[in-house]
UniProtKB/TrEMBL annotation:
InterPro entries: AB_hydrolase_fold. This is Uncharacterized protein. SUPFAM superfamilies: alpha/beta-Hydrolases.
């Protein structure tokens, strides 16, 4: 695949470090630590920062020892390699303080490593820097394996996609499938030449990443590929796919043939039918899932998406029967929903403003101003053909059986439509003011509607320090854990 290459940094605002062997109590206190030795260390030795927006870079420090009744201050130094140095003012800004503060009574403390990551579009290579913890009286630096006293940060590089170049924007591969007597296709990007070549015995896991409203499947592929590389897993066993649901404007702009499906506006993200060919985007995903199931050693499929792709993933999880079919083939299917702008509620209640977890039908004057608030895609009224075939009750029954993880960026709370393209219609605002609020309200809605049993298969996590960024979500520790390890 050819690219017009321009190197920039893309965003990871936060790295949550893996804590091996810790139960939930490790998140807050050190009550169960019996040793008298006090020890502080980084839990990983390196991190890659791929960024597209200027945000702080935060890591976690691990403390082992008796519970403390006061904060511990650990000084640190910053060093640079002999070549490929990161440059202050061009790549980053450091915090004013030269110490990390371990909060009293905590086993894990989040500390700001970089006050700001600068979007340096002129950098033409990876750049690195390192942070080293310094000796402190009464504190052992490093873990029992003699590591963790330093962390090396590499500012990575990514590709800027030219939306006017078909070799950049339109998927260089085509997924062709049949519906009754017709043949259709969509573009996609992948780390394999042809996903229909199912004779590959090495593939055990497939990850499908769905793009956002800009339909930039290439950028989505770059983000999920970066996350896979950070995992340091055997890429020979991993199939990565970024399907592309093109709009009618791309058909003419890039001279795509009549077999290409296309959608007007936002219909693809909600499973509605394509223009002219009347085929649901969910039908396309069903066909792709069935194709993947033919890999002889496939054990797991993960469908994930960011923003509009998160909307697609959540609604597809609730409506498609494919997960049941693949489960019968001993293929585990899970869904990871990242930062969607709206959700489909299972009933006509919405959270009562100013309450923690009270849901009720909106007041009459609210419904008068927003009469369609519970129509699909916000609720289950007036369903499009694919979902209507399942039925509202069928969707309500199907959703709690699905393995769904909802991830929301801690900083995805911008209410500016210009900045993040967040939906500001009244039906969306009834779900919350911003994406963060809408995510937490929706999971509270699931608890209200289904009770605690919903948590048997579904969960929600906040990704600290990340805003509305697909790379930040996928490449965070929490994102990688739920996409590649669970």
């Amino acid at each position: 695949m050819k690219h017009k290459i321009k190197l920039i940094y893309s965003a990871i605002a936060f790295l949550t470090l893996t804590l091996i062997g810790c139960d939930e109590s490790d998140e807050g206190t050190t009550d169960e630590v019996s040793t008298e030795q006090k020890r502080v260390y980084f839990n990983v030795e390196s991190a890659v920062v791929n960024r597209s927006s200027a945000e702080p870079f935060i890591v976690e420090l691990r403390y082992e020892g008796p519970k403390t009744d006061k904060n511990i201050e650990i000084p640190y130094t910053v060093a640079f390699p002999n070549e490929n140095n990161a440059m202050e003012g061009e790549d980053f800004l450091l915090p004013k303080s030269g110490v990390f503060t371990i909060e009293k009574g905590k086993a894990i403390t989040r500390v700001v490593l970089l006050q700001q990551v600068i979007n340096n579009e002129n950098a033409d290579q990876n750049r690195s820097m390192s942070f080293e913890l310094q000796a402190t009286e009464g504190i052992e630096i490093g873990n029992s394996s003699n590591s963790g006293n330093s962390i090396t940060v590499t500012f990575g590089l990514t590709v800027v996609i030219d939306p006017t170049d078909p070799e950049d924007f339109i998927g260089d591969k085509k997924f062709t499938f049949g519906v009754e007597t017709s043949t259709f296709k969509i573009p996609y990007f992948s780390n394999r030449e042809d996903v229909r070549d199912t004779d590959n015995n090495d593939i055990t896991t497939a990850v499908i990443a769905v793009h956002g409203s800009g339909r930039n499947a290439n950028g989505q592929f770059e983000s999920i590929s970066g996350a896979a590389q950070m995992e340091n897993i055997n890429l020979d066993t991993l199939l990565l796919i970024a399907p592309q649901f093109v709009g009618d404007e791309e058909i003419g702009q890039f001279s795509l043939d009549e077999e290409h499906l296309f959608w007007g506006g936002t219909e693809w993200r909600t499973g509605e039918d394509s223009e002219e060919q009347d085929t649901s985007s969910f039908t396309v995903m069903d066909s792709l899932m069935v194709t993947l199931s033919k890999y002889p050693n496939l054990k797991k499929i993960v469908l994930t998406g960011h923003s509009a792709g998160g909307q697609f993933t959540a609604r597809y999880a609730a409506s498609s029967p494919i997960a049941d079919d693949l489960d019968a083939l001993d293929i585990d299917v899970s869904f990871v929903v990242n930062n969607p702008g709206t959700y489909t509620y299972m009933d006509d209640k919405r959270k009562v403003l100013g309450t923690d977890n009270t849901f009720a039908i909106p007041a009459g004057f609210v419904i008068e101003d927003c009469p369609d608030y519970n129509e699909y895609r916000f609720g289950l009224e007036n369903l499009p053909p694919y979902l209507d075939e399942v039925g509202a009750d069928g969707i309500r029954d199907r959703l709690p059986q699905r393995k769904v993880t909802y991830l929301i960026g801690q900083n995805d709370n911008d209410t500016s439509e210009e900045a993040t393209s967040i939906n500001t219609r009244c039906d969306a605002l009834l779900q919350g003011l911003d994406r963060f609020e809408r995510a937490t309200n929706y999971f509270d809605h699931l608890l209200d509607f289904y009770g605690p049993a919903i948590m048997d298969n579904q969960k929600i996590h906040v990704v600290p320090g990340v805003g509305h960024s697909s790379s930040g979500m996928y490449q965070s520790e929490i994102g990688r854990e739920n996409i590649f390890r669970n």
